[in-house]
Here is the input.
Amino acid sequence: MLSNRWRLSNLTQFIAAERWKQLDLGRALFFLCLLELVLGGAGTLTPVAGAFTLRMLFFLLALFYSLILVLKAHPIRRDSFTLFGAHTFLLTTGVLCGLVNGAPSAAVFLDVKPLVFFYVLVFFELTVKTKADVETVGRLLQRCAMIMATAYLVYVASMRSGLIYWPRFYEYMSDFGEFAFRDDRGFFYKGFLYLCIGVFFSFDKRRILTAGRILLVFTAIFLTST
Here is the structure.
């Protein structure tokens, strides 16, 4: 009897540990996907092998993890199925129209590739479940906005003080295709979209902290001349 109880206790602890590992894995992957999405611009800054980027890797991992969750009886809402079905229909229609009108298949693939990322919403739906998860997303968006705003202000200060040689910097950064330069006055990075989004998550009960965050982000946005 004691032996059976001991085995049952060990089994319970093992199952609990495995569930915790799955939870940690899902949350870690969710955090990395969202972090790369916000800070990574259009996703071309972090190549893994050739044209295969870190965003593509996270996308495949997220879909694979989502498939495992679905197979383990984690349901997807019916309205989500409708949304994904509508997106698939529009995507298929666009591909067919392009091919019928003689567009090169390579060009069609380049147009479709960023739109396929829409399906990562399945992963977000399965991993963002609680109010705490939503608050985590808000904090991450706010902090990423602070990071990008601070980095851009440091760049502007370095440029004005002569610490950065602009022609060389321009030549190096232009290779990524993520930056739109405005002479030597500044540049627009595709990830700066989240500067504006981060403002809405910068409000805090402490008014001075809120004002400081918003001022920092608005100053960075203003200096992009966008």
